[in-house]
Each structure stands twice: as structure tokens, then as C-alpha cells.
Amino acid sequence: MDSLSFDTSSKKSKILYTSLALVGIICVVGTIALTSSNSSSPGLQQFQLEVEEFNHFLARHNKLYSTAEEYARRFKVFRDNSAFIRIHNSQAGSWVLKANQFADVSFAEFKSLYLGTKAQAHYTKRVAEENNVVIPDAIDWREAGAVTKVKNQGICGGCWAFSTTGAVEGAWFLANHTLVSLSEQELIDCSRSYGNEGCNGGLMDYGFEFVIQNGLTTEKHYKYTGRDGICNQTKVANVSATISGYVDVTPNNSTALLAALTHGPVSVGVQADQAAWQFYGGGVIDKSCGTNLDHGVLVVGFNRTTVPAYYIVKNSWGPSWGEDGYIRIAIKEGKGLCGIQMMPSYPIVNK
Ligand SMILES: *[C@@H]1O[C@H](CO)[C@@H](O)[C@H](O)[C@H]1NC(C)=O
Ligand SMILES: *[C@@H]1O[C@H](CO)[C@@H](O)[C@H](O)[C@H]1NC(C)=O
Ligand SMILES: *[C@@H]1O[C@H](CO)[C@@H](O)[C@H](O)[C@H]1NC(C)=O
Ligand SMILES: *[C@@H]1O[C@H](CO)[C@@H](O)[C@H](O)[C@H]1NC(C)=O
Ligand SMILES: *[C@@H]1O[C@H](CO)[C@@H](O)[C@H](O)[C@H]1NC(C)=O
Ligand SMILES: *[C@@H]1O[C@H](CO)[C@@H](O)[C@H](O)[C@H]1NC(C)=O
Q: Which PANTHER family does its entry note (predicted)?
């Protein structure tokens, strides 16, 4: 279809091309050209509006595709996702969706590219009894300065490494050290013998086991590449933070997770392969995700003075996703919404 060709001489397109070198190209997975026989096509005017909206989206997120076929394919995904988002937002609810950086990614691709917690794996449980803990109305560990800025895992199922570093950063800071951003790449490259699988997934507890044995160096020293790499032992030897153990919080119990959060940020597994996560744009999600854990994130606080009460959760999909990179999740009983109470754990730093 002709109307899909884009004018490379326009100013907007030039901006897109010049930014190519910086951001790379979303990987090509087959080609489905958009055809005019698409029965769900709206009128031509609407169609042109959507093309314009799509081009704005590409400029906003510095995206560029290598071929016209890829452009057409991504445009189709974008239109489907935009329709989904419009329908969700037209129904009154406690959270909104938005066409964020994942708006040109299908649900299936999203699942395979951006998640990565091997939640089925076995590990020794060290369950903590959280008795006699006074739980306050609200905690936000960001306000205490215990949380680093939101990071971006890119196209690598290394979420578990970001959840691990976030928890260690918080525990290290709260043991009266300085807040320092720690290396996910070290965990991705070097913790395979602890059960992790780099960009194919891992578990936060395996990450903690690695840190107990090796400590962790800084983000700055062992930089994130977003790819599986060979472990650099010289960098590993430059230790910036250590932990002495970790606690597996009593699962399936909101009281236990809230009590654990009085100690500092807590790593959790969630199911995030749903639209509620992919396009989350703000608010408190209170339904629409399951409990098949596939993503590791970090709970940095909660608020029980609101209805619904919610957890404050740091994600690793960059600061433009959600609420400046965060998501709020309603506190529910049992496994918790998105399974957030099924696998919480946090590290301990010896005083
Ligand atoms: C949850 O944990 C709390 C505190 O650890 C305990 O008092 C309570 O009985 C537990 N609830 C359930 C349903 O197991
Ligand atoms: C909890 O929610 C209340 C009401 O919205 C707000 O005033 C308060 O600042 C929140 N506390 C935290 C720690 O987020
Ligand atoms: C950190 O330092 C403060 C002030 O010196 C002290 O009150 C607190 O107990 C210390 N915390 C830890 C975990 O050592
Ligand atoms: C260790 O890492 C720090 C940054 O975390 C860096 O400044 C220092 O140069 C490194 N030391 C060595 C010997 O590489
Ligand atoms: C390993 O890290 C050290 C210290 O940063 C660096 O000098 C060396 O080039 C790295 N080795 C490889 C193979 O990248
Ligand atoms: C949490 O609850 C689910 C189902 O309700 C159950 O399959 C799972 O084993 C529970 N986890 C633990 C550790 O009890």
C-alpha cells in the first residue's frame, strides 16, 4: 500500500535517521506487509492520523526500522496496541495504559524479549518469621535515599539481575554505606554457576548467593551491555558492596511482605507478560495480571492510607515507562496481585 511509504526528505525523518547509530534497530522477526484489504481499516483520514501518531511515537522513542516491510509490520502492531489502549482507557478503572516504548511490540514478542525470571527453579528456602513487627501506614524507601535511579534492561531477560542489584543497593545503603549503583552485567556474565542464565533469565536468590560469595562491583566499573558476555574476573575482584545473607519472606502473605519492607526494599517475582504491564501508564493496577511469575522487580514501599492500598514497585524498563519507571500494585491477600507475594526475598548486610 502506497500510503505507507515515508517521506525521507522531511525533517522528522532526518531526525530519525541521525539517531539510528545511537539506539540500534528493533530486531526483525519476519515481514507482514499491511495491505489495503485489511477489513478493519478505518477511513483514509483516520489512517493518516494514525500514521502521523506512529511517526511521532518513533521520534519520541528514537526508533527506526531497517526496512519498509518492518515499518509496515510495526505500524500494524502499533495500531492494534493503540486500539487496545484506547478501549482500556475508555473504561473507568484505577489505572491507565499508554503507548510507551513497547507500543510497537506484540504481546508474544514482549514476553520473549523483555522478561526473564526462571521462577520454576528450585532453591533452598530460608523462610523468615516476621512476628512482632509494627507495620507503619506507609513507607517509601526512595524518600530515605535508598533507591538508585530507574535503569533499563533493554532487550535482555536480565530483570532478575536488576531486582538483585536494587535490593543489594538498598540494604547496603541502609547499613550506613553510601548509595552506589551496582553492576547487573557482573551478575549476568558471572553467576551462571549459581543457576542463573544471563539474558535468558535467572532468580534473585541465585543473585544473592553470588553476592554472598563474590560481592558486587559498581555499575560504572562493570558496565551494562544488555548481552551475555564472558565474565571479567578482574572486575569481579573490585568489590564495592557485600551481603552476608538473604531472607526468603513467608510466601503468599501480605502481612509478611509488608513486615519485610520495614527492613528495606524487597525483591519480588511477578507475572508481567500482560498488557497491564506492557502498556502501564500510571495509577494503581488492581486486576488483569496472573500469577505465573516471569519477571523480577523491586518493591520499594507501600501505602495503606489509600483505597486501594498499594505497593510501590521499581521496574527496569527505563524511566519513560509507567510512573517514571515505577508501577503501583494493589495490595491483596494470598499470592497477591500479579503473584507479588509468592517469592519475596531481601539481602542482609552484616553490621
Ligand atoms: C501471615 O503472616 C502473619 C505474620 O507473619 C501471620 O500472623 C498470619 O497468620 C499469616 N497469615 C496467613 C493467612 O497465613
Ligand atoms: C500515602 O498516600 C497519602 C494519600 O494519598 C499521601 O498523602 C502520602 O504522601 C502517601 N505516602 C507515601 C509514603 O507515599
Ligand atoms: C546508622 O547510623 C545511625 C546514626 O549514626 C545509627 O543510629 C544507626 O543505628 C546506624 N544503622 C546501622 C544499620 O548501623
Ligand atoms: C574499582 O572500581 C572503581 C569504581 O567502582 C574504580 O574507580 C577503580 O579504578 C577500580 N579499581 C581497579 C583496580 O580497577
Ligand atoms: C577486564 O577488566 C579490566 C579492568 O577493568 C580491563 O582492564 C580488561 O581489559 C578487561 N578484560 C577484558 C577481556 O575485557
Ligand atoms: C502459594 O500459593 C500457591 C497457590 O495458592 C501455591 O501453589 C504455592 O505453593 C504457595 N507457595 C508457597 C511457598 O506456599
A: CYSTEINE PROTEASE FAMILY C1-RELATED
